[in-house]
Queue: 3 jobs
Job 1
Amino acid sequence: MCAFVPPAAVAAVAPLSSSAPSPSWSWLNTLHPTVMPRQNGKVAIVTGGGRGIGYEVVRQLARLGAHVIIGGRDEQEGLAAVRRICEEDKEAKVEFRKLDLASVLSIHQFAQSFKERNLPLNILVNNAGVMLVPEGRTGDGHELHFGVNYLGHFLLTWLLLDLLKSSGEHGDAARVVNVSSSAHSIGEIRLNDINSSYHYSAHAAYCQSKLAQVSFSSHLHQEMQRGGFRVNSCAVDPGMVNTALYCHLWTPLRMAQRVIARLFFRTPAEGAVTVLSAALSQDCKGGYWSNGHREMTSPAFDPGLELNLWEVSMQLLGLQSDQ
Ligand SMILES: NC(=O)c1ccc[n+]([C@@H]2O[C@H](COP(=O)([O-])OP(=O)(O)OC[C@H]3O[C@@H](n4cnc5c(N)ncnc54)[C@H](OP(=O)(O)O)[C@@H]3O)[C@@H](O)[C@H]2O)c1
């Protein structure tokens, strides 16, 4: 952690820093940074915040005065991210904590050590993700896309939910922001083969995990509203963003993608804009966010499927509702 931000030391709103680390030629897909409210006194966790979109979310939240914890599995990358942010802004309050979303044990340890610090938790950004990875399993036997992108975040959120509920009681409602993708729209949740054991397609597995995030987000939001808790949960599509996420593409496709991405994809800073809008907007009411705002029409949510997925996830993780 590099420094503490004196509370309420600055104006109520601040423009997002537009000094993106690399220049963008993405003239078709550009999202401009916007004005966001100060976040002094707020605490945020961003998973996978060591690089890519997550890094930019961390950087901007810290710049707005929030205390930000990067949850990631690569310590070197995480600490380098903290150093870079602190070099840029001596006041930034950022730290790295180890979190491997492919391990139930690591998620429990991360949540436990965070709770022991008696900090509030105002914003949880479930951002970490993998895409098109070769067939593989988490330490607990779940298909990698499903396990890391969805189930790991489900568990993390569940373990931190009481803290989110209590933190949302005063001031702004707490937020859970699930970084999904437009790929959710072609996803299918196969409850009878959730771990793709009978048939594996990396593409289908990624899309399923992103649909599962949207579904989880919607169900959680409704549960929180029903229970009268001031916790909003939303799903976000950051757009096509030029990051390392595409590193598992088939090599010729990867080479083509690199050229196309430099021309047409968003920069990570632009990709972070919608995530930040959902995390910080004062009238966030859940839903699905893309292109910097809440979509008027949500994707086709299916309450029956949402409930089934929720119950299956609880069973897979050995959780009970009254925990
Ligand atoms: N880029 C796009 O075009 C795009 C489009 C739609 C949605 N998204 C979503 O945006 C999110 C961020 O992706 P990105 O584009 O910024 O990709 P990225 O640069 O590859 O970042 C992914 C982050 O997730 C972390 N991560 C992966 N596996 C993990 C694990 N088991 N435990 C903890 N952290 C783990 C990575 O850290 P490691 O160093 O440990 O791997 C990295 O920090 C993802 O959820 C992705 O699906 C991206």
Job 2
Amino acid sequence: MRITRLETLRLRCPVDPNHTRPSSRFVHDGSIHLRIHTDAGVTGLGEPSPYGGPLPRVADILEREIQPLLVGKAPTELVASLTRLKDYPEGFGHGNVPYDAAWAGVEQALWDIEGKVRGLPLYRLLNPALTSTPRLRVYASGGMSYEHEPPELIVEEAALCQAQGYTAWKMRPSVPGEATRSQHNRTSPPIDMRRLLAMVEGVRRAVGDDMDLLVDTGCRCRDIQEATDLARALEELGFCLFEEPLPRVIDDYARLAEAVKIPISSGESLVSSRQVAPWLKQRALDVVQPDGNLAGITGVLEIARLAEANGIPCVLHNWANPISLAANLHLAAAIPNCSLVEYPILYNPLRTELVQDPWHPLNGYLEIPDRPGLGVELDEQAVRRYSV
Ligand SMILES: [Mg+2]
């Protein structure tokens, strides 16, 4: 069996203005998906589109740079040598989001083909010791709002998720304006701490003690003191995870992690064990959050292995569409130190319409269907509907 073609699907779906809940404003309205075709008629699916963003550069890389490397090759041989392939030619991957994303999508698609050829679900390929159908605990990831909106909406969302059966939920601090989206660098808007503290208190009061609560400040605390104060307040309220408190400086995370009790996490942008190693060496993280949508299959596996060797659990980051969700769930099932996966609850038609049989959590758990490969197939009508 040989690869004949890489097909990139550029998809976009309109935002429905009738969705007025805060989280809905952050709809993923575009994405790139990938189909790898073979001369045996087997195709593999991948999602090279981190954060659900359109990233047209990714499609360019796939079509012009990666496709010539793959056409004519046997998918099984590529799966066996992916790390070498990813490092070739020099400069690909590692710290370069469009390349990392493109290769992550390629890996997903190649493993999907491998699973289909061997008649096994991906988690079995990655961990043959797994025999029963994996069921993964997920946390509802939402809790987004703007400062001009009433904070009660966030409290309502947490209670709604609890009523839907979720046992864990994540929120973010409000952002000041509709145009502000850069939450991952030092230019991010400061957090209105009074407002945030009122929200986290309101949420805890509304859901009681039975729900695990997580906060992701998107690297937005002003300094270690502010992050420490917030961490202590979250500890008082029994929050279980404090994600990306500060801009991504290892020394700062190490100081904070030592000063507070609540577990500190990061890692959604880290794609290899090489990148994660210095964080673990300095004990800067209590939880690592790789994502198969950016680190790819091999990246998540090697990061999880390194984390496990350091006694650190993984909570997989997951912020894209159904194909990456599938890849991340298979990964979470296959690695021994991951017992929680992110499940975005934002309004997103691609998540519910793009595949034939979308996976929905039941009572806070997602079961991986017993199908070969990733176990998801595109709905061709939805692909036509949203293609641009
Ligand atoms: Mg995050």
Job 3
Amino acid sequence: MDGKFTLLPRRGGSLRGSLPKFLIAIILLCTVLVWLAGSVYRRDTLASAPLAADRPTPTHISYEPDSISGFVETPAPPPVEEQPTTPNSKVGLKHWWGVESPYHFRGEGPRNRTQIGREKASLVMLVRNRELKDALSAMKDIEDRFNRHYRYPWTFFNDEPFSEEFKLHTSRMASGEVQYGLIPKEHWSLPTNIDEKKFREKMKEMADKKIIYGGSESYRHMCRYNSGFFWQSPLLKDFDWYWRVEPSTSFYCDQLYDPFTFMRENGKRYSFVMTMYEFRATIETLWSSTREFAKKHPEYIAEDNSLGFIVDDYKDKNSLFKKDFNLCHFWSNFEIADLNLWRSQAYRDYFAFLDAKGGFFYERWGDAPVHSIAASLFLPKDQIHFFHDIGYRHPPYKRCPQDDESTDYGRCQCPFNKGESFDFDGYSCQKRWWKFHNQDDSGNPIPSYKIPDF
Ligand SMILES: Nc1nc2c(ncn2[C@@H]2O[C@H](COP(=O)(O)OP(=O)(O)O)[C@@H](O)[C@H]2O)c(=O)[nH]1
Ligand SMILES: [Mg+2]
């Protein structure tokens, strides 16, 4: 009989066949024991762990080996008090996806817009509906860097009615109250003293010469409005201070203190962050008109004014009549200033005088040189302030604070090397300002014998 067909197992064959089964059984048993031990250990650990509420709140992210993961538990927020509905929330804010939600999303729905800052101040923007996106980007910077902690109101002006869309989005972006002003026609049209034919000819001439904005009528209205009218608006009557904001501007640093309070407490009335040369072709007769005005009203010219900044080789008060305007002006797309400076009799008379000359239309006088000359002549020089600690961009120029303190504490995010700031550009008048105030190239006070050479 062939052994291979026998039903009786051979001894050796029996041992070899049962060994793998035995090993498999041992492995299974060990697995079950390990699993049981693990679950008992887990139950013990969970039972002895304090409840979430009893656990101390971690104050920093921990990377210790026994921590579960690196995270910060924040305590539950205090209950939110019902806030009064402000007029702005009547705009009808809805979630953009159109779904009613039980949650209050920050920035949506009724919110507390009560002003926190202590000054009678408003952020002010002259703007067109089509500039909404650029307006929002400037607003966002100012809100994030400053205003959400102060909730100063925003005042918007336009020569056309603001669209619902503009009002909806800007009121959402604002942390404080918002108001929208329609500029009266008489503040945004050719005044009766202007010879329209002559104006159109002059405008064409400037356009042909490719003078910047030389061919634009609306730009002229804008410059005249910023020079002579916005501060007269009834919307601003309860305010003493304004911060002019333009669409597309950027703010690179946290604003660590209230600049309005700073201005008031330090007796400042006009401020700037950039200064540069004006295009002479836009203001051919502005200086001669100013001289004429100053002759008529010498009482308006302040002692210790800033004439030495806007004329070269300044000697004394008479330099106004002997020297030419060196074209240095404060770039007025940024301004924090005292509205009462423009409301003063001196400035009202100056504006009326200039307006009668017609230079806003026959030439293209900008509000920047008009404001700058007025502030330089009518104010003592210490009342004009250079905000060295504000990082700012208005295309195409940008600047950042030069000192480490402002950069560090202000969390400045300047997308360029500090040394590339516009302050040091050949087109900037900043060095002149420093020299005029007896400061060195970085604005530090210097002994009078060490005037920088430039
Ligand atoms: N409502 C209105 N605002 C204007 C008009 N033209 C200019 N602006 C605003 O006036 C400011 C200066 O104008 P902008 O075009 O920025 O001039 P630039 O900064 O000198 O190049 C900005 O705030 C503009 O939004 C206009 O025709 N209507
Ligand atoms: Mg601009």
